[in-house]
Amino acid sequence: MPAFIRCVRSDFQKFRHTSMLWIHLLIPLAAAVLFLSYYSVSPWNAETKISGYFEVIGSAFPLMIGLICGKSAEQERQAGNFQVMLCGVKSRPAAYAGKLFVLLLPGIFAVAISVGAFAAGFRTVPGILYFKAAGFLIAGSVFPYLLHLFVSFRFGRGASIGLGIVESLISALALTGLGDGKWYYIPCTWSARLCDCLVSIWIDPSKAIGYTELEKCMTVAIPATIAAFVISLFWFQRWEGSRSNE
Prior knowledge:
Elements: H1 2-16, H2 20-39, H3 46-78, H4 83-87, H5 92-121, H6 127-139, H7 142-155, H8 157-174, H9 190-203, H10 208-238
């Protein structure tokens, strides 16, 4: 545990001297303001507005994760081809877990800002709905963080950003009928579709489809995320810090 705490402190110091903190603050806030401004003159009903907002946030998340993880990996590469991270602590798992935690924490902060700011200006729906939606957005993003951290370390920032673009497009397409019955197996769609299920349950709690969709996703997502974390730890333990390719 002390090694993990030291790694978190070290990574946070690296993080605070970049633009990433401002990215996590300004982009979610700008998104909330833009949507609230548009919704103030839009004729759509409350259900469509809230669902549309969560869908956009969930679909954009993979791209943002790709940018952030790519930036973090590039920082480590420039500091000595990852050797500072790999050799600076005795426990490689602690170094990896610390890096993941420091990336996830601002992501949670960004979700809190985007959902909280929107909730402050759009009070038509119950507060508990926003709280649950934030939880789903965060929970659905853990696997993509693990994936992009691996891609960023192994293949470089460009690969992570490119993957994020593709994932965001897939997530948007999966919100249509193309994703029905398949989205549980596509991690980049989890955040957006989970929020869709949540809104569906709020609109009509008597419908079983929303609960069924949630159950199917959790059956796949929870074991997959745990397995991805364990596998990534084993991989990082043996990784020698080969140079990322742009």
